[in-house]
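User: Fold both of these, please.

Assistant: Here is the first one.
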Amino acid sequence: NKKAFVELLFWKSPATVREMTEGYGSLREGEGAGRSRVLPWTPQEEQELRELYWKYKEVEGEDVIAAILAHLPAPGRTRRQVVKRLVRL
């Protein structure tokens, strides 16, 4: 790529740099994608999340999300995923 120097003038993420070095379109094909797919929430998980939220929202001095994560039966959920789902619900 003779014009790669122009691309170097702008800030790049590690994923973009990898795409530049390995060939454009490699990330779209799923090769070397940095993020794994997020599992969708089932209706049962959403119901459990609602119940846990209503149970722990009134507790003084305790982090609601931390309490929910400790009692959430679905392993592998991150704090960010729980917060996003609660906002959507």
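And the second sequence with its predicted structure:
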Amino acid sequence: MVVCSLACWRCRWLLPLLLGLAIIMGIIALAGRGWLESESAPYVHQASLWESCTRGEQDLNWNCESLMDYGWGRAAAATYLVGFVILVICFALAVIAFSVEILRFNFVRGIGGLLFVVAAFQIIGLVIYPVKFAEEIPLTGDNMFSWAYGFGWASTVVVIGCAFFFCCLPNWEDEVLGNIKPSYYYSSPERAPYLN
């Protein structure tokens, strides 16, 4: 029976696949209008990373204000977007690294270091946004940071996990490349009479 873990050449695509998942969650966070929403009816407020929209209780049309008019809005969007761009670059580098037969483990460790940079940028953006939003934008009713903001944090958590695995993968170089001879364990004849 063969156990397939991250230290297995056949499973080398698991890490790039996880990075692809983080990219998808990052796209949802960047495009989603659910960073902040009204918690209950009447739904009078919703916001994305880029704009904040409000409406009256009886009004059907949203009045939107760009968050790019605020310094903190530009900072939150820029830091999250820079982290996302570096994440896409790391994904491309990971696909290249795991496509070649002779894996360069220092290269893999470099991808892990870049992923920590991605996580730092994304965390900065994800912390600036709610703190400054609550201070600068007048909120009416009960509001909550919603699904798109959650996807931003989910992407960041996946990136942090992948960063640790990319940094630790060179420690299992022989296992990944299949350079270790299998070990066979035999019990004594008294314990296993069927081997006689």
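The helical segments are 14-31, 71-99, 105-136, 147-168, 173-177.
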